[in-house]
């Protein structure tokens, strides 16, 4: 029998109004660094969370000087701010980018070095990270429950920091924070969570402990995604999708992703496309090839209320993707990109771990065929 490990889980506090607990979960007071998505400024959410922290005895320094896909320089600037203010806790508020940045900052702030020092596991992270709290305002990336932080280098390469030091101590899921997410973003982020769960449950690293979370995530997305897209104020559906994203995060934290993420990351490095849409399309295009001889897809089909077979999963997945309203054709955005380019990008070393985790081994010829399929989805 092989050895299985389910990594440490953060404490998760969830429900309408859970955001009011942020200060109590942050601790006894002291200096706090709030890393908040600048796109949230108009909503008043940043002010509300900052006011709650002050009421709880914290002095608050705000860092919002970043955009999606935060850079190493931005992580270094935020960490410098944490050191200057002697922050004892970092609160991340926003989508995956804000949470990834907050987690990285809390991990690297205890030492004077740049985030670049720790990229791709070149050096171990400082041993005593600052306390960190993740408050997601989208429901997809699962960053709130993973020990990975993705940053962008000057040469545009996406690199990761990884380790238990990166993982949140506390997660706060408040469905009211997701209610203003527009339908297109709701669909793309929800599909990202679904693809995380399916890949973690069907790849080479799948194990029963992580699959428990993956299968529940699939069930939740299948039941609630379309409701949240069609009725943004449906807090029940929003809450279920928040759990789905957190559970799917736990699944990939332990098992990683697979071929749809390898293709999706390659797509994202060739053209500007939302990550959730990229991996959603990549899964649709690769499924007919990928389900072969993989019985794990039948269990995923059952989660979606479909005939428990590979064929059942392919049909149910496509039906859900179309019902979510996601635009599937890439013809406009990927005009001028050839299948050969996409295949070559997918084969790059930074995508190797995802490609290698896939249960069905993908040869160079397979990658070319899959790239063709991706570009011809309609
Ligand atoms: Zn993803």
Outline of this structure?
The protein has 378 residues and is of the alpha/beta class.
Report strand order across the widest sheet.
1-8-5-4-2-3
Largest sheet: 6 strands, parallel
Structural class: alpha/beta
The coarse overall form would be globular
The CA-CA distance between the termini, in Å, is: 44 Å
Element layout with pairings:
Layout: E1 11-14, H1 22-26, E2 30-36, H2 45-55, E3 58-63, H3 72-84, E4 89-94, H4 96-108, E5 131-136, E6 148-152, E7 158-162, E8 170-173, H5 183-202, H6 208-230, H7 235-255, H8 259-270, H9 275-290, H10 296-303, H11 310-323, H12 339-346, H13 352-357, H14 364-375
Parallel strand pairs: 1-8, 2-3, 2-4, 4-5, 5-8
Antiparallel strand pairs: 6-7
Highlighted features:
single chain; 378 residues; alpha/beta; 48% helix; binds zinc ion
Structural write-up:
By secondary structure, the chain is α/β, with parallel strands linked by helices. The protein is 48% helix and 11% strand. The strands form two sheets. A six-stranded parallel sheet has the order 1-8-5-4-2-3, with helices on both faces. The chain has a two-stranded antiparallel sheet with strand order 6-7. The longest helix is centred in the middle third of the chain and has 23 residues. It is globular. The termini are far apart. The mean pLDDT is 96. The site of zinc ion has 5 residues, from helix 5 and helix 9.
